């Protein structure tokens, strides 16, 4: 199903509180006050995002285009995306360039940046602000051989035992079952 930008906004609801939290976190990391304006307008040229990437992982964005053509500004966003992926943000959580630059899916941009703020918790070298709930640590369990074998004699419904019911009399694939 193809959604026009107008209809798409019905499916991806923007969360102004989340956007405010994300901006607060970004500028907290940068040590700057949050500028006035709309979420997407503040981040649209990618300059702030590139500065954030360099704050999280120094030197991760080599060139920041402060002003220029739309293409050059979109490159800032792409550099940020590459840095975020290298920092540990999963590819499926990274927003598309057009989501921000063309304001196609600003809600996804906010979710992606929120996820990046959460990932900072996995970096012990980062001592700046983080975002979101504390991430869980690995929870490995050790089972003895006896514990692993304890269920071997049991039959359950997943193993095909269903209290005597069968498909006999059904007549094969595609036929109706006579009751």
UniProtKB/TrEMBL annotation:
<keyword id="KW-0112">Calmodulin-binding</keyword>
<dbReference type="Pfam" id="PF00307">
    <property type="entry name" value="CH"/>
</dbReference>
<dbReference type="InterPro" id="IPR000557">
    <property type="entry name" value="Calponin_repeat"/>
</dbReference>
<keyword id="KW-0009">Actin-binding</keyword>
<dbReference type="InterPro" id="IPR001715">
    <property type="entry name" value="CH_dom"/>
</dbReference>
<feature type="domain" description="Calponin-homology (CH)">
    <location>
        <begin position="16"/>
        <end position="120"/>
    </location>
</feature>
<dbReference type="InterPro" id="IPR003096">
    <property type="entry name" value="SM22_calponin"/>
</dbReference>
<dbReference type="InterPro" id="IPR001997">
    <property type="entry name" value="Calponin/LIMCH1"/>
</dbReference>
<comment type="similarity">
    <text>Belongs to the calponin family.</text>
</comment>
<keyword id="KW-0677">Repeat</keyword>
<dbReference type="Pfam" id="PF00402">
    <property type="entry name" value="Calponin"/>
</dbReference>
<dbReference type="InterPro" id="IPR050606">
    <property type="entry name" value="Calponin-like"/>
</dbReference>
<protein>
    <recommendedName>
        <fullName>Calponin</fullName>
    </recommendedName>
</protein>
<comment type="function">
    <text>Thin filament-associated protein that is implicated in the regulation and modulation of smooth muscle contraction. It is capable of binding to actin, calmodulin and tropomyosin. The interaction of calponin with actin inhibits the actomyosin Mg-ATPase activity.</text>
</comment>
<dbReference type="InterPro" id="IPR036872">
    <property type="entry name" value="CH_dom_sf"/>
</dbReference>
